[in-house]
Structure prediction request, 722 residues.
Amino acid sequence: MDLEALMRCLGTKSCVVTQLTSGLIIGMLLFLIASGVTLIFGVLNVTNFAHGSLYMIGAYVALTLYQASGNYFVAAIGAALSVGLLGVAFERLLMSKVYGSNVLMQLLVCYAVILICDDLVKIIWGPSGLSMGMPAEFRLPPLRFMGGVIPPFYLFMIGAAMVIGLVLWLVIERTRFGKVVRAAAVNGPMVSALGIRVNLYYAAVFGIGSALAGAAGALAAPVRSLTPGMGFSILIESFIVTVIGGMGSIVGAFVAALLIGFTRSFGSIGFPLFVDGVMFLFMALVLIFKPSGLFGRPHR
Amino acid sequence: MTAFRSRPVGRRRVLKAAGATAAAGVVGMPAIVTGQSGTIKIGVPTIQSGRVALVGQTSVGGMRSVFDPLNEAGGINGRKIELVVRDSKGAPQEAAKVTRDLINNDKCQIILDAEASSGAFAVHEVIREIGVLCVHTNSETSSLTADPKLHVPTAFRAARQGIHDAIGGGDYAAKIAKAKNLKRWVTCSPDYAYGRSNTAEFMEYAKHFEPSIEVVDESWPKLFQPDYTEVVTKVLNSKADAMYSALWGGDLSAFIDQGNLYGLFDKMASFMVNLGDYGVVDEVKQFPSGVYSGGRYNRTVPPTKENEDWYQAYVKNYKHKPTNWSWENATAAAFLVEALKATNGDTDGRKLASALKGMKIKSPWGADGTITMRGDDNTIINYIIGYGLSQSKDPYVKDFQTSAWGPILELEKEWKKKQGYG
Prediction:
């Protein structure tokens, strides 16, 4: 524990700016992934344990599209759409068969998909780590703000994640599509009885959730090593976010992702050896005192 | 209803099984069959997938650079060498399991352990139980062979040792620190045995040679950590004059890529023992210039014909560039071949160990053209050690300065006494 260093940092503008930005970067990436998990759970009542694999595929597809097109924006959008489509196929062909089954069955299906995805990545892209490198558009010197250092690409990442989150919230809360999705989440058979093809909505929700994972992978690709199995570590953190925020709550995922992001950025200074411990402690406290999560509704 | 029908377990079957078990107990269950005919099977537990899959790929390349020509020339007394390579995925428990499988199921008679330190200690304990000959080819954690409590008579190390690099590197860093007034240092190394011991040893000797050096902050990212953002910003916020890092492989590449975003390497002098290796050079998209880099493998270090010829043959045969692990594994293979010749192809662990102790071989990577397997602690000495300055184009490291082995060995003795290893 080095709380003195943490206090020193909190008393220095440059340190606060740098660490706040760092927390936002970590948090926003986690939010994109966790919001997909929580959206799928909230509507379909299934936990997509293979969500990390979709993040991994998003990163690899972005790399390939970037190498082919030379344009990072094309690569990122292409990766999100591709993974979204893959998610629809995954939902229609596999997950839809285990709706209503117990969690163990869902877990087994997802675990099989994780193993298949990891092996496919090894076959297609090879077992070694790959690196996209910083796209030419962002090879700029870091920005200075109040003495703190902010890389331009990270500003873009934060902005992109916030815009995606806002659009997602608007779609769910302010559109007819969102109304049907929310109604289906509460009572799918009743919505179906009104003549609405609920299965299409389920597939669309799964596709959107998957596209969010793909977008997160594409945003992470320029700054992280791409390896088979890279989705696993981020999946654990995104589940922590989902549990703290509340399964099914996008606002909860946003708040919890920021909480974890800031815990990691400031914790690395104040309690570097106990950062993971604090994250799990948050989760344990939430599970004990508010099992449905900070913003979640009681489980159906 | 069951999906299959099992044979009823009758009294005769039970008696047969009990008899067989009892017989095995009386004669002892041999874990290994050390057959002296046919191929010599060498098991290789290593990392073949994930961010540091390059470890396995270039380690096996290094071994093959010795065994392939040997097999083409007829092998050892007509017996060819067969490598059986298994992926541990970098997990210690998997490394131990894979090693047991290689010995007990694949009937490997020798182990070339191409694990990182995280797995090497687990393999070491398996070797202690089973007693076959093992050469650790990648683990640089000093205690593996320096700590007498960990000593295993049939286990050797043909890899750099952290304490050797630390003394040589500490001396080099101290001179730079003195010349450039680098007093406040921050460290950033992986949080496991190698990272911890390597960093402690480097800073100890940097301070030994330049007492004004002070470590103001430390950062310990996890091994194979995907994101270094908070680590980079912590290092930046330390406002240190210089940084030392023992990150390696894909972790180092990710750290450099993310550090570049913050202009980290322009803000402080950086010393990275594992930077100037082809694996990192090829993976990092914006390779930083002006970083003090430890000597790993470079075709120009030493600038000899033997080294260049080996590099060219390696690239031609295995279609990738060699790394630090390649020369270490090639060295292990070369020692093993000499030991097998000395035992006339006998793979008995104790006989091979006896042959290896104190053995000196010619090597392109020897400080004076030879490398010795020191008999006291079963580890190699007299290999090339040094530091240079990174540059963004081939040969990627310039102004390389080699360290003298005399002072390294003297200070190593003192270090061992201090550690209670004496």
Chain A has a mean pLDDT of 91. Chain A touches chain B through 48 residues (CB under 8 Å). The first strand of chain A starts at residue 143 and ends at 145. The beta strands of chain A are 143-145, 148-150.
